[in-house]
Amino acid sequence: MNDYDNIWLHRLKWTYLLLVVLTLMTPVMYVMYVSFNQNGFGANEYVFTWEWYGLIFSDELLIGALRWTLMLAVVVTVITVPMALLAAKYYKAADNKLFPVFLLLAPLFVPPDILGSALLVFFKNLNFALIWLGDQIGTSLFDSWFRLSFLTATIGLIIYTIPYSFVVILITMGRYRKEQTEAARACGANGWRAFWDIEFPQIRAGVFSACAFTVILVFNEYTRTSLLKGGFDTFTTVLISQMLNTGMSPQSYAMSAMVSFVAIAVIGSIILFTMIRAESLSRTARAKAEPVMS
Amino acid sequence: MTNGTQPMTDQTAPAVEVRNLSKHYGDFVALKNVNVTIAAGEYFVLLGPSGGGKTTLLRTIGGFHKPTKGEILLHGKSVGHLPPDKRPTTMVFQAYALFPHMTVTQNVGYGLKVAGLPKDQIVEKVDYALEQVGLSQFTHRKPHELSGGQQQRVQLARAIVLDRDILLLDEPLAALDAQLRKDMCLELKHLQEKVGITFIHVTHNQEEAMTVADRIALIANGDLVEFGKARDIYRAPEKSFTASFVGENNMLKGRVAEANGSSVTVDVAGSKLTVDKRGLNVTDGQEVNLSIRSECVALDRVNGTNAPADGLSILGTYDESVYLGLTTSHMARLPDGTEMVSRVISDTDDTLPEANAPVRLSWKPGDIRLHVE
Amino acid sequence: MADLSSSAGGAVPAGTDKTPWRERLAPWAFRAPLIFMVAFFAIPMAMTVVFSVFERTMFWMEPGFTLFSYENFFFSARLTNFLNSMKYSLISVAICFVFGFPIAVFVRKSIPEVAQHRVVLLFILPFMVSEIIRVFALRPVLQRNGLVNTTLMDLGIIDEPITALLYTHTGVVIGEVLSFLPFIVFSGFLAMEAVPKYIFEVCDDLGVGPWRRFVDVILPLAAPGIFAGSVFIFVNGLGVALLPNILGGAGAVNAGLIATQAITALDFPLAMAVSAIMMATLTTLLWIGHKLFDLTKILTPLS
Fold first, then answer.
1. How many structural domains comprise chain B?
2. Of A107, A247, A252, A262, which has the most beta carbons under 10 Å away?
3. Which ipTM was obtained for this model?
4. Same domain assignment for residues B75 and B152
5. Which domain holds residue B349?
6. Is the domain of B71 the same as that of B135?
7. pLDDT in tens, C98-145
8. Residue B353 forms part of a structural domain
């Protein structure tokens, strides 16, 4: 904001921005609101309670689903983030950037149902092909490779989450100067050591944000997971089947509210952490830089 | 971090030997067939306009670029495609190359840590290196808390602490302001004399090059144009490019009128000038270039009667003068439109010739040089 | 790679002839993500075309060539529904742009650089809850006696509840705007990187008003990012099934819903035909965009 700008206009714009965020958040807050209601969703009377949160852990269906979801989230994150990191490094060094960019960002543009259906049919056909191949050479070794399972769901979710991780990591890498890697090499460090000692500490924030993003995206994803998952249920698929059949149980509201509380807390602390860090860094920099005479 | 047990150095071999080196980026030729030899313990400068290929040459020596053709020998051993960390070289970069998340001490000690030296040795060596660059009191600062000059000193310390025999400097002073650059130049020179290792320094600034260099190589358009001692490059440039890039030379185009014995007569804008042949091959009617440094040109008013054609002067019209403090440059125009400059110490308050007044520009026999390429 | 030929000119010392396995493997490690994406993303998406011409069987499909699925799509109500969803998707894009893009401009122009990313990060907060729960929670907000209607009636702005808010195309558009608006903020924010801050000062200096500044300067510079964001919203408006499924009424059927319905009905070739048509739409749009604006520019601030 400049000295001559209208302060009230500036505030008005801020108000508008926050209002939009608030509007987008309405459904989230509504879920949180319902989760504390003794009488559950749709009741006329509102009685505040913690009860449903206590009951989360007695709902075996939810707990089972939560376990699957967590496992899926961890596995997907452990694969996606290093892949996105490798891809970002590759992109940085590539002469032809169009191909990697297209390949890595295109999943953003493919709607969930389309990606889910395409992968579903692809995996099923791949599975049939492998079974046929196994029959030809007399082995049943490949029979279950691409049967709908944890593996296929993982692949689908990696494709879904990799563009986000890629972009987040690329943004943090933008501030990194490659001269530092070269300097490390000139100091005798090999490529891996230079990355680990010099570059990684500087892009760590981006890598961790990518991890947080991936976990949250996997946690909340419904379409792709439900199409590709095979036998097990994840947290969101349980909620949806409840929604579409019997209506969500109050503990489900509590559960999704809790998930969003945790997620908001994670993102909130990332924001706060970076803000405080930047502030203190610049303060110490100012304090230390002042007496320098060179 | 040269390997202590197995000597990588052959004391008789030159520190760096570049043979027929070419580097292409697709269709773009960054270096074409460069040959150069740099002796051990020498302060060698690669000088040239930006984009000329000098940084490419330096970085290829350092192992950051792979040569397209040719080879590089360090202390008589071909380094082939060894990565930078396996070469007896280390490098100082233009800027931004300090590790921002480490303190000065950690930055300087990083290479030793990678080499696996014991802690107490690292501390000792780092302290000594920082002392040499005059940064002992800043050990716990982070790079962003240092000035540009201090940052470059940390880079220097980080490089010399490794005890490697060849230090590559890629425009190390380019990001500094003029005064600081002058001071740091001398410091670099003294540091090199103290540590005694080979310095190879890339710069586009000729004053910087003159200050530090034992020898200078001129590089432009991917070619190594000429190399020699700083004084020779300045006073007796071989190629016309060198003359136009180093110092403030007047470049005159002319045609050979007569080549006889050890001197040549060249026709420049209607005047016949005599110039030493320097053993070059010239034929009558050939187009040649002449160069003469502006401080060797004297400018006199012409009053109709003088101006004999002695072969060491030319007539023109006065243009204007530019006062530069220590010196004043007088500009004159020859009949063919070429501009000539005469630079003199600004110690007279003589009235200047008015614009378009006829003037005579003259010089001593040894000052004008012939270039035939 | 060009570098492979580089050893031809010089004598390479014996030590480097056998490159250690680690160094030979490293370039492939960096390509692994791309290989993965080709194998499990590009190929499956391309295969939709092949599978879409397979013959439908009772529970699955068998190799063959028939255009039955395409007939089934183009000569039925599905085409009308698809074109309709395109129209409403375009409306959503326009609304998102009008509401969202000024935010991106405001953040870039008037908020200190260090805080910009954090302000933009505010817009990912809604994604902390599963999209489907968010969309589902819109029902009690939009329904006949829902939050919007009761508030408006309490304020005396309307007498009758507006029933058109839910189970209609309007409902779907509202859902799309609330789901996708953040994306125009993100892409707009990235796009505004192409508009240096001094542009605003230059415009002030030249006496260019906000409207002309927007049309003549900001829009052309930020076009690649705006286009990418718009394509994203448009295609997702066509392809996200749960929006029309939960918020739409009769006739509100988009491509995503057609595909999932086909899968539920075990008509896999039809689902593949719909996917192929969607991929063709997307590719065409991106291709046009790339020809017009060079979409790689969006990522220049990152490289």
1. 2
2. A252
3. 0.85
4. yes
5. 248-371
6. yes
7. 999 999 999 888 888 777 877 888 888 887 777 877 888 888 788 887
8. yes
Residue C241's domain is classified under what CATH number?
1.10.3720.10
Tokens of C32: 């692994």
C147 to chain A nearest CA, in Å? 10
Size of interface A-C (CB pairs under 8 A): 236
Residue B327 and residue B201 share a domain: no
CB C149 within 8 A of CB C161: yes
CA distance A63 to chain C (A): 17
In-domain check, residue B3: no
Per the domain annotation, does C39 fall within a domain? no
Domain of C260 in residue numbering reads as 71-299
| CATH code for position B353 | 2.40.50.100
Residues of chain C with pLDDT under 50: 1-17
In a domain, B147, yes or no: yes
Q: Which of B67, B74, B66 is nearest to B38 (CA)?
A: B74
Q: Quick check: A118 and C48 in contact, CB under 8 A?
A: yes
C-alpha distances in Å from residue B234, one per residue of A231, B295, B347: 82, 12, 25
Q: What is the DSSP letter of B353?
A: P
B248-271 average pLDDT score: 85
The per-residue DSSP string of chain C comes to: -GGGGGGGSSPPPGGGTS--HHHHHHHHHHHHHHHHHIIIIIHHHHHHHHHHTSEE-SSSEES----HHHHHHHTSHHHHHHHHHHHHHHHHHHHHHHHHHHHHHHHHHHS-HHHHHHHHHGGGGGGGS-HHHHHHTHHHHHSTTSHHHHHHHHTTS-SS--GGGSSSHHHHHHHHHHHHHHHHHHHHHHHGGGS-THHHHHHHHHT--HHHIIIIIIHHHHHHHHHHHHHHHHHHHHH-THHHHHH--TT---HHHHHHHHHHTT-HHHHHHHHHHHHHHHHHHHHHHHHHH-GGGGGGGG-
Q: Chain B interface residues facing chain A, Cβ-Cβ under 8 Å? A: 1, 62-64, 83-85, 89-91, 93-101, 110-111, 114-115, 141-142, 144-147, 149-150, 155, 158-159, 162, 168
In a shared domain, residues B231 and B255: no
Cα–Cα distance list, A225 to A152, A160, A235, C247 (Å): 9, 10, 10, 21
pLDDT digits (tens, 9 = 90+) for A35-79: 787 776 666 677 787 777 777 777 787 788 888 888 999 999 999
